[in-house]
Amino acid sequence: MPASRNQTPKKHCVSVSLSDQLSPPTTMSVYLKHSGGCNTVEEQRARWERKRNRTAKELVETEQRYFEQMELIATYFVEILKAKGTLRQDVREAIFGSIKSIHSANQILLVYLEDGKFGPGFENFCSCLHLYTSYADNMEHAVKVLQEQIKKNKAFVRFKKLQESRPEFQGLKLEDLLPLPLQRIHQYKHLLRDLTENTSRDNLEFQQLTKAVKAVSEVSQHIQDHARSHANYLQILRVQKLLKGRKTKVLAPGRWYVREGWLTAVPRKGEELKPKMFFLFSDILLMTKQCHPLHPVHSDKFICQCIYPLIECTVEKVFGHTKSQGGLISLTFESEKLLLMSNDQEDIHDWYRCLSAAIGQLRSKSTIVHKKDNLARRPLRSKEASMSIETQSVIPERGKKRNLNEGQWREQATNPNSQCSFPESEGTASKRLRLAEKSSERVGSLEE
């Protein structure tokens, strides 16, 4: 028997340091721990290094291009406009915001990146991220002011066209350059994430890059949320302008536009089928009808017929489960039931999905609020102390009570379709009763 048969095969092991065991795993560390063979580990390390080098090269090259574009705005617009006085200082600051400070911060970052110091570079750059946040918050106002100047200021229009015709701009306009800082933040998030995933934990820059990914991702999320909020505001404003008259108010804090479309409301017996335009929001459903097409002013507008609160709605799919044409959904409210029909099965299915999602989110928020209210109402004092406090608070301050009632009536007057109702206290009710009795006594004395 050959001696080689009695020999046990050599085991290839991968040594794992204590820091690797205690810290959360990365893509690289997970792969290395589960791969067998030192050659495989070395090959994989080389593969990660090549990926890191590609990401680093892309980061430097895109940063150079981004800095050149920021320099175009800072040099050919901000500085020259300041010297010429074509725009007032407040208008200039409204359009360009913190673009000069962003340009300076990225100039320092570019020096770090070109030297290969990615960790220290982004560690220093993270202290300047507030400039991007303020720039994003001012973006809509900047676009609005720029459009106003293009319409009214002929000298600025001539100056703008002259600068944009320079070969350095490569056909780009000022409107194309202004959103670049917001786009660059999203690029930073993805490039930094790739760079960190391909960086070994033993690298001194790993912790710096990890913190930078977190900070940049938070700013990127803030910019995305702000953009979604503004887009939602524009959608609701568009719907508000489509509605005839001023009685129906759809602009409200916390309200989100979901969708709109034509549906046929199934009427009672004997009535004619008529299509209605529905507007779905996060908390209400609007049923409208189109104004007469021959109306001289409002032919393209809609008349609101009813506002349905989704908090008290139950939605069911009556038919449309099969591949047959069309579908029907049922909406049940406290005082009414709606049957909505469409010949497009995909469309009615999307309505059912959107309604179900909106109702579910609304009820989950309502449940959370009720739980918080119950926790807030738990007494923190003894029973005697709470009773003494209640007896002291029976007589409210006269000024505060009057202001509250005025605010309530003002809310009802400005927003007659408001879903909120203010509960009437016992003191207010008894006071109103006494005033009514006094007024009736005065009327009786006058009649006598």
UniProtKB/TrEMBL annotation:
<feature type="domain" description="PH">
    <location>
        <begin position="256"/>
        <end position="360"/>
    </location>
</feature>
<keyword id="KW-0175">Coiled coil</keyword>
<dbReference type="InterPro" id="IPR000219">
    <property type="entry name" value="DH_dom"/>
</dbReference>
<dbReference type="InterPro" id="IPR035899">
    <property type="entry name" value="DBL_dom_sf"/>
</dbReference>
<dbReference type="InterPro" id="IPR001849">
    <property type="entry name" value="PH_domain"/>
</dbReference>
<dbReference type="InterPro" id="IPR042987">
    <property type="entry name" value="ARHGEF39"/>
</dbReference>
<dbReference type="GO" id="GO:0030335">
    <property type="term" value="P:positive regulation of cell migration"/>
</dbReference>
<dbReference type="Pfam" id="PF00169">
    <property type="entry name" value="PH"/>
</dbReference>
<feature type="region of interest" description="Disordered">
    <location>
        <begin position="377"/>
        <end position="448"/>
    </location>
</feature>
<dbReference type="Pfam" id="PF00621">
    <property type="entry name" value="RhoGEF"/>
</dbReference>
<feature type="compositionally biased region" description="Basic and acidic residues">
    <location>
        <begin position="434"/>
        <end position="448"/>
    </location>
</feature>
<dbReference type="InterPro" id="IPR011993">
    <property type="entry name" value="PH-like_dom_sf"/>
</dbReference>
<feature type="coiled-coil region">
    <location>
        <begin position="38"/>
        <end position="65"/>
    </location>
</feature>
<dbReference type="GO" id="GO:0005886">
    <property type="term" value="C:plasma membrane"/>
</dbReference>
<protein>
    <submittedName>
        <fullName>Rho guanine nucleotide exchange factor 39</fullName>
    </submittedName>
</protein>
<feature type="domain" description="DH">
    <location>
        <begin position="51"/>
        <end position="226"/>
    </location>
</feature>
<dbReference type="GO" id="GO:0005085">
    <property type="term" value="F:guanyl-nucleotide exchange factor activity"/>
</dbReference>
<feature type="compositionally biased region" description="Polar residues">
    <location>
        <begin position="411"/>
        <end position="422"/>
    </location>
</feature>
